[in-house]
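Re: phosphoric acid mono(formamide)ester structure - here you go.
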Amino acid sequence: QSIFRGRHFINLEDFTKEEVDTILEVSLDLKKKFAMGEPTPYLLHQSMFLMFFEQSTRTRNSMEAGFAQLGGHAGFLDSSSMQISHGESAKDTAIILSRFGHAIACRYCNWGYGNKYLNEMAKWSSKPVMNLQCDLYHPFQALADLMTMKEKIGDLKRVKISIIWAYAESHKKPISVPVSQVLLFPRYGMDVTLAHPKGWELPDWVIAQAKENAAKYGGSVKVTDNEAEAYAGAHIVIPKNWGNWVNDQTGLAAAGAVAVVDDKLKAHKGWKCTEAKMVAADKNVMYMHALPADRNNEVEDSVIDGPHSIVYDEAENRLHTAKAVMTLLMGGR
Ligand code: CP
């Protein structure tokens, strides 16, 4: 049997570098076939369940569209309309859904609960459980980021990448995106700088694991509270901010976003990606962002819409990487 078939996809650390490479190769193959209009019915007549506790644009739709393109049917489940609202356990939910279909995917970012919930489902599900983002990890995002960087640059050894944000464990906010990135990128020999204001440190175990990965694969990991140091000479920057997040066009506040309610957050409003800061980076620097981006507080339009931005290519690769993971976990022999 294929080494992928039937496995859970909770954290990329559960996959060797060679396995991650294979996922990327399959992603690229599926991307080419998609571009050529070639059918890819690898999961014909299979069903899966997409359970969301939080909102999503990219993750939900890359999975839903991707699974349809592989010949299957994905059922969207809003956790608030399930019996979870009446206290049904992860165990019972996982056992039942895995008897109905071929995989379960779930997003649950609630701090202190999300990853535990995913692991509990994985323990009881008889079919693969995929992590669509929890409080600790967002493996699909990090994978799409990696694919995009490899497409643009090729060999990533000694490429300086600056992840300019983090939520501290003590803030009880999901830290899944920077954690997945800071763990994965050193495995590709990248020089990772994690920059954030003092008091916003990722947990020690994350940095320790990232440094171990760097030592094994020839990358490096540096943590700083100096934003300028992160931009200086960077080949890739991934900046975020901690500001209030209200969309100008809809007037809606982002669910789960951090409102600027206390002075600690207000103090860091200056951590915004601007053209002026980008000048200090490499002349071919690439701007990345998992999206959704806060165009008021996180980044200037001229950067995210400018020539250095690759955010839409990055988002598109969510589709191709999602399809590769589903194909490998649910298909094959
Ligand atoms: N990047 C990401 O996960 O986007 P969504 O929240 O829209 O799924």
